[in-house]
Design goal:
Blueprint (H helix, E strand, L loop, with lengths): L4 H21 L4 H17 L6 H20 L5 H14 L1 H26 L2 H16 L20 H13 L5
Helix pairs in contact: 1-2, 1-4, 1-7, 2-4, 3-4, 3-5, 4-5, 5-6, 5-7
Length: 174
């Protein structure tokens, strides 16, 4: 089921606002994500069709669960986790999956540009290959603190989520 155009527009506004916060302060505030969830469910309830609450709940859960592994590995922050869950409440499970995949691509491209600009592309490549090697040997992706990767810094992933959201949703409004 496609999300309503009003929910799509508000999801895009939420994602863009989160990107601005993330760029400015490297944080996505709870004051943005928590009210967004309330608005999403409020709009779904006001439609008069309470069956629309189910896709919102599923979308919230899927958005949360998609980012949870990266959060647990300390690759993403709690704000990114809550933003993806809030977007899922607006969009439902199918659309949030598309947003997630587009965000992964955008995040990868942003990380590559960031590394290239800092002259650390090889460090990032070594980290990525090390993680893949761990997974192929069927070891946990968890890296103990005494074996931490060389940090390449943090990128404002809210920007990648905003790019993923807009690129996934705006073509569907035509």
């Amino acid at each position: 089921m496609k999300p309503e155009p009003a929910l799509v527009v508000l999801a895009c506004v939420l994602a863009l606002a989160a990107a601005l916060f993330d760029l400015r302060s490297r944080r996505i505030p709870n004051a943005l994500t928590y009210p967004a969830v309330i608005v999403a469910f409020g709009l779904r309830a006001l439609s008069g069709n309470l069956h629309l609450l189910v896709p919102g709940l599923l979308g919230l859960a899927v958005g949360f669960l998609l980012i949870l592994p990266a959060y647990l590995l300390r690759a993403m922050g709690a704000g990114d986790l809550k933003l993806m869950a809030a977007l899922g409440a607006f969009l439902g499970p199918k659309a949030i999956l598309t947003v997630f995949l587009n965000s992964l691509i955008a995040g990868g491209l942003i990380a590559l540009m960031y590394l290239a600009l800092r002259g650390e592309l090889m460090v990032g490549l070594r980290n990525a290959l090390g993680l893949v090697a761990r997974l192929l040997r069927r070891r946990s992706a968890y890296v103990p603190p005494e074996q931490e990767w060389i940090s390449i810094g943090k990128i404002p992933y809210g920007v990648a989520i905003a790019i993923g959201t807009v690129s996934a949703l705006l073509p569907g409004l035509r």
